[in-house]
Amino acid sequence: MADIDNLKDTKDYFLDVPVQPAQTNVRGANALDWGMQNRLSRIFGPGSGKTVMLAVDHGYFQGPTAGLERVDLTIVPLLQNADALMCTRGILRSTIPSSLQSGVVLRASGGPSILKEMSNEHIAVDMDDAARLNVAAVAVQVFIGGEFETQSVHNMTRLVDAGLGRGIPVLGVTAVGKDMVRDARYFRLACRICAELGAQFVKTYYVAEGFETVTASCPVPVVMAGGKKLPELEALTMAYRAVQEGAAGVDMGRNIFQSDAPVAMIQAVNKVVHDAMKPKQAFELFKSLRREHVGIRV
Ligand code: R5P
Prior knowledge:
Elements: H1 34-41, E1 51-55, H2 59-62, H3 71-74, E2 84-87, H4 89-95, E3 103-107, E4 109-110, E5 122-123, H5 127-132, E6 137-142, H6 149-166, E7 170-174, H7 184-196, E8 201-204, H8 211-216, E9 222-225, H9 232-244, E10 249-252, H10 254-257, H11 262-275, H12 279-292
Parallel strand pairs: 1-2, 1-10, 2-3, 3-6, 6-7, 7-8, 8-9, 9-10
Antiparallel strand pairs: 4-5
Helix pairs in contact: 9-11, 9-12, 11-12
The site of ribose-5-phosphate has 13 residues, from helix 10.
């Protein structure tokens, strides 16, 4: 039994201070349960409220991608610079240290490889397993306009239902087929559908014209997808513009791990996302950090 002798009288009621509501700084998340808000805060930190996610889930459809041949050697050293890691449960269990402090966004859809129709995905992770892995969110590909559009949307809505039951948020990833136009009109449509049907945040590509209309019309955070490898200054410029135009951060893979100096690149991306560092300044930072890392594997 607790020692209850000489209990102190209560007195500090601060009657002149209104009770402070506990609020999240994540867009659209105020009505979510505490556990889900807590998980989202592992992705969107309390500081800037933005995120630098490191995407390394490519192997789930394309095998050992360039830069991901040895995740233990090339990705693990980057983790301390990532707010969140997007990966599969296979890589998580086999290769990522369980002492990881960053939020994990677990790839939860899959099925076809690059050799087949990519939109023919199914749910690939049970929410119980996501809970066992203590992930911050699960990610599902949504193929708006794709051959298996309805099936992929249904994958997402089933994960949203299961996620609400466990307090695990869902990231809707807008996938673009080979023949689809990548413009603001398409991404407004795709992002809004994901949010309307319950995704707690959305990942989508940057477009030079009208990206601010994509973020403005999406009631949950939009995270910019990295896409194909660009020269570092271009990638930093794209990330800067996306955040200035309303993105809640970035989820970049190849533009970080295929850089010739991935640690320098992820540190420069952090500055752009969290401190609004201008792209040219971030590129100078990248070059000076790269010099420091000469001779080091990553
Ligand atoms: C597919 O669409 C996945 O989300 C990717 O495997 C990955 O996240 C893409 O990252 P990046 O295009 O930045 O290399």
